[in-house]
Amino acid sequence: MTHTFFESNTYTTLENTDVGDKSQFICECSYAPDTTQLDLVFDPSEDYYQELTTKLEAGEWEHFIARIQIKYNDMVMAERHLGSCVAEDVAKWFETDVDGVVDDMIKEALPEAEQACRNLLNDLMEDFS
Questions:
Q1: Domain boundaries, given as residue ranges, for the chain
Q2: Phi, psi for residue 109 in degrees, rounded to 5
Q3: What sign does the dihedral 115-119-120-124 (CA atoms) show?
Q4: How far apart, in Å, are the Cα atoms of 10 and each of 32, 66, 95?
Q5: What is the pLDDT of residues 69-109, one digit of tens each?
Q6: Which of 93, 104, 105, 122 could form a cystine bridge with 80, CB 3.0-4.6 A?
């Protein structure tokens, strides 16, 4: 279940790619601005904090929530969110996935999406047989 904090955001879709053993799913990568107060998620006493706030205020970096949705026939079967991401270029952050977090989010969501499809199939068979 997704927290309402994540659901209430307006997301910008960056890309859709095939995922799954038979490419039966589409993975949609999107993001929304993260308006969380910075000193609640980053330590103001750390050396990086001044650069972080300066670059964010200047618009050089973006503070955002990353979202991965695994879809089947345009239905969201699973999703994952990661808040308090910071990057100069959000699209490049998703594309390069330097820390492997995007890949981890996809790997985490795929089994849930597969199970959701099985559940849907069982429900349909029960309802229409």
A1: 4-127
A2: -80, -30
A3: positive
A4: 6, 12, 21
A5: 999 999 999 999 999 999 999 999 999 999 999 999 999 99
A6: 105
